[in-house]
Amino acid sequence: MEKEVLEKYKKAGEICKEAKELARKELKVGTKVLDLAEKIESFIKKKGAKPAFPVNISINDIAAHYSPDIDDETVIKEGDLVKVDIGVHVDGYIADSAFSVCVGEKSHVLITAAEETLKEVLKAIRPEVTVEELSTIIEEVVSSFDVNPIRNLAGHSLERYIQHGGLSIPNSKVPIKQKIKEGTAIGMEIFTTTGEGWVKESSPTLIYRFLRPVPVRLRTSRLIMGFIVDNFQTLPFAKRWLRKIGSRASLELALRELVSKGAISEYPPLREKSGKPVAQAEETVIVLDKPVITTI
User: Fold this and answer.
1) Does 233 have pLDDT greater than 90?
2) 96 catalytic per annotation
3) Domain boundaries, the chain
4) Topology annotation, domain 207-267
5) 85 given a catalytic annotation
6) Which of 42, 56, 105, 217 is deepest in the core (most CB within 10 A)?
7) Burial grade of 4 (CB within 10 A; 0-12, 13-18, 19 or more)
């Protein structure tokens, strides 16, 4: 990996680490998730970087992909198991990190299981390690806490302006002999639950990603496409980031048109299939002879 590229990954990681510290301080009973997300995103921009994706604040059985809606009134409550997933990019080079808190509790088995599993798998990451080796570690360590991994979620490679690259490291053992190449950037994430260990798509969709320009009928759709290309390229964006373009109703119509035409893809919220709580832990690692964890 070129030194200049590595430095950009490191800078993104340092800002992501600071954003996590801010999030931990602000996350408390009574905090509005909209205020928390926008405070974190504003902090990232003030530090000279940009959000790599909308801040995800997923509560209880929602595992991922919940970012506040326009005028979202959701408030953090005592006992909520909250996942905060933060992405930062510098010139397209991404840091992706997440932590979990059970509000009002000093510890929670799901959080401990996710964090300890992440520590063990990070120790094992090196050039030429296989997906099978890493996925086996994940399943064995998570299971040692008598909880389940989320089997249809995975760690993933990070590429320039691409949050989810071509490499996946599932949260359960898979017989995949693919070797991880030196220089790969990975968002290594672990999800744990007391439920069945599978997630399913739910609603409403609040996060999208641009795929390609297409002819559209609605003026708002054209405005959205131009705004996305100018600001986000192929990185995910939030519906609330579009609120200056049009009214809630016009945005809903335009987003539906853009999805139906294949211009954008949806990231619906992911809920644990049996409705049980989920914890998450994630850090970004650059795979080198001496791996660099950019977000710790």
Assistant:
1) no
2) yes
3) 3-201+273-293, 207-267
4) Arc Repressor Mutant, subunit A (1.10.10)
5) yes
6) 56
7) exposed
Angle at which helices 131-143 and 109-124 pack, to 10 degrees? 150
Which of the following is catalytic: 61, 69, 282, 283?
Answer: 282
**Could you give the dihedral angle defined by the CA atoms of residues 255, 257, 260 and 262, in that order, rounded to the nearest 10 degrees?**
-70
- Condensed to tens digits (0 to 9), the pLDDT of residues 241-277 reads 999 999 999 999 999 999 999 999 999 999 999 999 9
Q: Does domain 3-201+273-293 have CATH number 2.60.40.420?
A: no
Known catalytic membership, residue 282: yes
What are the tens digits of pLDDT across the range 148-173? 999 999 999 999 999 999 999 999 99
Token match 């290309």: residue?
Answer: 229
Q: Please say if 91 is a catalytic residue.
A: no
189 in catalytic set: yes
Nearest-CA neighbor of 94 among 132, 133, 53? 53
Q: Which of 41, 65, 156, 272 is catalytic?
A: 156
164: annotated active-site residue: yes
